[in-house]
């Protein structure tokens, strides 16, 4: 059995831990440059604020309904995510972190009532970290993901599903009739991996609910759609067949993490792993035409080796400007790793997550002061027509890098993943500080000494 | 940064080229963890480490948060204006604990007084009133204060 644990309206919930006065009020978190809504409280959803709703269109809600809009605070979200993930990881032998606020727990071989265990886990995460979660349980990841959706929807819209499925929903523990009723009440578009386009095609063909989809013959699905959708159907029917690499990517971030085959103790080996994961993540990032505004790096020991000293840490490294450049991202990730690595621990898992994603065609240009300090011949060799001005030099450098990156992706696409790799982390560029517009950012309560919350005495 | 020298400095004739690699010493040290001294140490696995305040003071790292105190209502409990408190949300609050509570959406630090279902928040300073939840007012305990850090003027 798998469980998917997912923080409710995660960014908003993180903000509310330190500003309890926001509880019960409509709150949204805005993307970089305060562009559009990337997280909404239930109250904001009820007002009609959509995901990706541009901020300038929401201003009426601020005036008329007291909507509170905050700038994204990824340093806070990265730290709260780590706390939540570590608490969840102590409940199952294997955990796979899927996104900043979601992880799959693999309960294979675990005895006992999973619903009771997961209710306990949910209560502990809420009590210890302050984040309310939804937990979905099912025999496959696709069913666990669907169960998670049902657990949250039941809580948010009472009456949409039987009340007992709220907060913790176990689709493997209800009767066949109940399961079919739940499937029939759920839109096909809510299934993991069924995007807008495929959803529309399915509906055209008369497949509008999950029940309709489950009843399709898997091989027919393969003929009419794809192997990917066939796997989805098989998973809904209860057969495990989605591997980690087949999983649909999370929407708002790109995540690459692995458990190590054997414990890793050396920082050098961790650095190699982090560099490799960052390259993979950057490749996915470029594949979807995005750039990342920050990178989250985490390392941890195994909570199941109870005799070993335990350590886990996460760091969020903000980037000076959003980038999709593997080398810049890897350098930043290694700089982050350097800050959290401690010798003397047996590391079991590490990962990177690219967050604060935005499309590359709407990136902001800016004067690059680093370029002024660039050693002669460094960036310039990629462009013959150097004019001497820092800005031109930087822009040509960017063009060159973009070419380099797409060449790298092409080689890896043709000769297999990892054919062409970054040579470790040779560059030493620390990119600190947020250069972007973040007028409404809350303090970095958990990662900056000067920013900790104030309590009245 | 390391600079490599000496090796050839006393010899006559042209110096042999020495590979020079820019290395950040602190980073290398952090990566290596322990320095190889040439022979194995029998005590390697039981290394003596400097006391780590995080380890001593924070029992539940995932549940512990820091807050800065403003105000004088807890003076007689040893918590002064400007102190930093460690707040552990994993500890079940009970009578007598110093807690961070949420009153009308704001954080306040007080001593929890709890008898049966009666609850109040006591100040540790006679010039401040206790807080008794009024009808309909919710008082929520956010976490239990385990430690106060008081920085002296130096």
Automatic annotation (TrEMBL), chain A:
What transmembrane ranges does the database entry give? none
Q: Which InterPro entries does the record cross-reference, listed alphabetically?
A: DNA/RNA_pol_sf, DNA_pol_Y-fam_little_finger, DNA_polymerase-Y, DUF4113, Rev_trsase/Diguanyl_cyclase, UmuC
Xref: CDD domains: PolY_Pol_V_umuC
Could you say which protein family the record assigns here? Belongs to the DNA polymerase type-Y family.
Record-given protein name: Y-family DNA polymerase
The organism's taxonomy opens as: Bacteria, Pseudomonadati, Pseudomonadota, Betaproteobacteria, Burkholderiales
What are the protein's UniProt keywords?
DNA damage, DNA repair, SOS mutagenesis, SOS response
Q: Which PROSITE patterns match?
A: UMUC
Annotated UmuC domain residues: 2-195
The answer to whether the entry has keyword DNA damage is yes
Look up and give the organism this protein is from.
Answer: Roseateles oligotrophus
From TrEMBL, chain B:
Q: Which Pfam families match?
A: Peptidase_S24
Q: Does the keyword Nucleotidyltransferase apply?
A: yes
Which terms in the Gene Ontology molecular function aspect does this entry carry?
Answer: DNA-directed DNA polymerase activity
Q: Which InterPro entries match?
A: LexA-like (IPR039418), LexA/Signal_pep-like_sf (IPR036286), LexA_repressor (IPR050077), Peptidase_S24_LexA (IPR006197), Peptidase_S24_S26A/B/C (IPR015927)
SUPFAM superfamilies linked: LexA/Signal peptidase
Q: EC number(s) for this protein?
A: 2.7.7.7
Keyword Transferase attributed: yes
The Peptidase S24/S26A/S26B/S26C domain extends over 31-145
Q: State the source organism's domain of life.
A: Bacteria
Question: Enzyme class, one word?
Answer: transferase
Sorted alphabetically, which Gene3D superfamilies does this protein's record hold? Umud Fragment, subunit A
What are the protein's UniProt keywords? Autocatalytic cleavage, DNA damage, DNA repair, Hydrolase, Nucleotidyltransferase, SOS response, Transferase
Concerning its family, UniProt says:
Belongs to the peptidase S24 family.
Protein name in UniProt = Translesion error-prone DNA polymerase V autoproteolytic subunit
Q: What organism is this sequence from? A: Roseateles oligotrophus
Lineage here is: Bacteria, Pseudomonadati, Pseudomonadota, Betaproteobacteria, Burkholderiales
């Amino acid at each position: 059995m798998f469980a998917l644990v997912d923080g409710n309206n995660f960014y908003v919930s993180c903000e509310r831990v330190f500003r309890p006065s926001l509880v019960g009020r409509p709150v949204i978190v805005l993307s970089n440059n305060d562009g559009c809504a990337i997280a909404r409280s239930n109250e904001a959803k009820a007002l009609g604020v959509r995901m990706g709703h541009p901020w300038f269109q929401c201003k009426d809600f601020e005036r008329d309904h007291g909507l509170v809009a905050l700038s994204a605070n990824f340093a806070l979200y990265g730290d709260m995510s780590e706390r939540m993930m570590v608490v969840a990881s102590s409940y199952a032998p294997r955990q796979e972190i899927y996104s900043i606020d979601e992880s799959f727990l693999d309960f294979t071989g675990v005895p006992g009532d999973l619903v009771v265990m997961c209710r306990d886990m949910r209560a502990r995460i809420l009590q210890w970290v302050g984040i309310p979660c939804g937990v979905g349980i099912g025999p496959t990841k696709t069913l666990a993901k669907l169960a998670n959706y049902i657990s949250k929807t039941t809580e948010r819209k009472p009456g949409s599903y039987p009340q007992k499925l709220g907060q913790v929903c176990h689709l493997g523990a209800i009767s066949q009739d109940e399961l079919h009723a739940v499937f029939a009440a759920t839109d096909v578009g809510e299934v993991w991996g069924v995007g807008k386009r495929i959803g529309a095609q399915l509906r055209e063909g008369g497949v509008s609910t999950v029940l309709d989809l489950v009843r399709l013959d898997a091989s027919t699905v393969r003929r009419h759609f794809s192997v990917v959708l066939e796997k989805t159907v098989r998973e809904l029917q209860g057969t495990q067949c989605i591997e980690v690499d087949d999983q649909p990517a999370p929407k708002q971030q790109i995540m690459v993490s692995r458990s190590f085959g054997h414990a890793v103790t050396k920082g050098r080996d961790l650095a190699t792993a982090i560099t490799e994961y960052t390259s993979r993540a950057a490749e996915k990032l470029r594949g979807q035409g995005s750039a990342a505004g920050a990178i989250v790096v985490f390392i941890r020991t195994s909570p199941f080796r109870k005799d070993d000293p335990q350590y886990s840490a996460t760091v969020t490294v903000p980037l000076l400007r959003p980038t999709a450049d593997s080398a810049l991202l890897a350098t930043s990730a290694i700089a982050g790793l350097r800050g959290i690595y401690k010798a003397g621990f047996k590391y079991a898992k590490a990962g990177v997550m690219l967050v604060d994603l935005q499309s590359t065609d709407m990136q902001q240009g800016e004067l690059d002061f680093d370029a002024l300090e660039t050693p002669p011949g460094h960036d310039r060799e990629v462009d013959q027509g150097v004019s001497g001005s820092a800005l031109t030099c930087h822009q040509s450098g960017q063009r060159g890098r973009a070419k380099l990156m797409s060449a790298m992706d092409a080689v890896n696409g043709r000769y297999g993943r990892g054919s062409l790799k970054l040579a470790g982390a040779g560059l030493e560029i620390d990119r600190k500080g947020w250069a972007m517009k973040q007028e409404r950012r809350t303090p970095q309560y958990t990662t900056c000494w000067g920013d900790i919350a104030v309590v009245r005495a | 940064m390391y600079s490599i020298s000496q090796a050839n400095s006393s010899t006559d004739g042209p110096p042999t080229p020495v590979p020079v690699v820019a290395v950040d010493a602190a980073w290398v040290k952090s990566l290596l963890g322990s320095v190889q001294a040439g022979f194995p140490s029998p005590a390697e696995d039981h290394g003596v480490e400097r006391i780590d305040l995080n380890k001593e003071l924070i029992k539940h790292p995932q549940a512990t948060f820091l807050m800065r105190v403003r105000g004088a209502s807890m003076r007689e409990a040893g918590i002064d204006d400007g102190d930093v408190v460690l707040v552990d949300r994993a500890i079940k609050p009970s009578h007598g604990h110093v807690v961070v509570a949420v009153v009308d959406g704001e954080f306040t630090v007080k001593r929890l007084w709890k008898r049966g279902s009666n609850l109040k928040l006591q100040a540790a300073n006679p010039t401040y009133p206790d807080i008794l939840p009024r009808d309909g007012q919710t008082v929520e305990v956010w976490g239990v204060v385990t430690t106060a850090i008081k920085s002296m003027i130096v």
